[in-house]
Design a protein that fits this description.
alpha/beta, seven-stranded mixed β-sheet, five-stranded parallel β-sheet, 7 helices, 19 strands, elongated
Length: about 325
């Protein structure tokens, strides 16, 4: 089921993941006209289930989004498939143009388009992504507990990631890959926790019977492993923001880029909010949904303030001093 896109809305939500749908749900429930424009490429689609989400533990990503879309529609919101090509300011709001040429006007925008995970160039990683190649111990750690885990160094958080996964298994190996092996305090931490470090570039995973059996290095050495943790570089899905003067910047942790905002999701462009991974790279599904709800509340408050100002300006007192009868 899809909805016919109208000409204008109070709020257009760009991105139909947990953050966008929860934001739209909140707005629809306070009788705002709202449309979600969803490109249909959720970041967590390869995962078997969503974890750490109270009341919905293990639900498939597709089912969670389908339920969310139904809830938004139940309160009168629209959910429309499409990709946003551009968004530009106009008088009192914004014009959003879709890739098919359709346009829609919005008084406010909530951007929840998330990020794309750029994986290291190692044969086999992408095919196993979301199964036995993972990135987050809170999202997937339980599923690979007690296995022989490899951590592929690819950025400044590699040692931290290895120590996180060490909590889940006694057998963790950090592959330095294209980075220098850890030294100093970091090397001491890994040694104290029993995390081995293997120097040398990884070229491929070794797969047998639809499971990881090992990791092959450039010299042909194969190190037996059953699961791999990687730290992808995260890039924002937000080229359309150029027309608003909003551009992603490098995240302070050095793990990718994000769109900066305040704690409520307000950006530097009046009328534009962001929520979820597009601004908070570390947010899991529950945190993204919560951020969408918080941004929606701020957007609604902003609209109420605008409507109140307009009402005050248009209000004519019943009596004016000039028309009051003399005593």
């Amino acid at each position: 089921m899809t909805d016919q896109l109208r000409d204008d809305y109070d709020v257009v939500v760009i991105g139909g993941g947990a953050a966008g749908l929860n934001g739209a749900l909140m707005l629809a429930r306070v009788r705002r006209t709202v449309a979600v424009i969803d490109a249909g490429a959720p970041r967590n689609a390869p995962a078997e289930g969503v974890h750490g989400l109270l009341g919905r533990e293990g639900i498939s990503p597709g089912e969670l989004l389908e339920r969310g879309r139904a809830e938004v529609r139940h309160y009168g919101g629209h959910v429309v498939p499409g990709e946003v090509a551009a968004a530009v300011p106009d008088s009192g709001g914004f014009t959003v143009t879709l890739a098919d040429g359709a346009t829609v006007r919005a008084r406010r925008l909530l951007v929840t388009t998330g990020v794309v995970d750029e994986l290291p160039d190692v044969a086999g990683l992408r095919d196993r992504w979301g199964r036995d190649v993972v990135h987050c111990p809170y999202c997937h750690g339980w599923e690979i507990r007690d296995k022989a885990i490899g951590v592929l160094a690819g950025g400044p958080m590699a040692v931290h990631q290895a120590l996180l996964f060490r909590q889940l298994s006694d057998d963790v190996v950090l592959f330095s890959h294209t980075m220098p092996p850890p030294a100093g305090e970091e090397a001491e931490q890994l040694a104290a926790r029993g995390v081995r470090v293997i120097d040398g570039e990884v070229v491929s995973l070794v797969i047998a019977e639809d499971r990881i059996e090992g990791v092959r290095l450039t010299d042909g050495t194969v190190v037996g492993r059953e699961a791999m943790a990687v730290a992808p570089r995260m890039t924002v899905r937000a080229a359309f923001l150029d027309g608003l003067g909003l551009r992603p910047v490098e995240h302070p942790a050095g793990v990718g880029e994000h769109v900066p905002s305040d704690a409520a999701g307000r950006t530097g462009v009046p009328g534009v909010w962001v929520a979820g991974n597009v601004t908070d790279l570390m947010a899991q599904v529950g945190a993204a949904a919560s951020a969408g709800a918080a941004a929606a509340a701020q957007i609604n408050a902003d609209l109420i303030a605008e409507e109140t100002r307009q009402a005050v300006a248009a209000h004519e007192p019943q009596f004016s001093p000039a028309s009051e009868p003399a005593a």
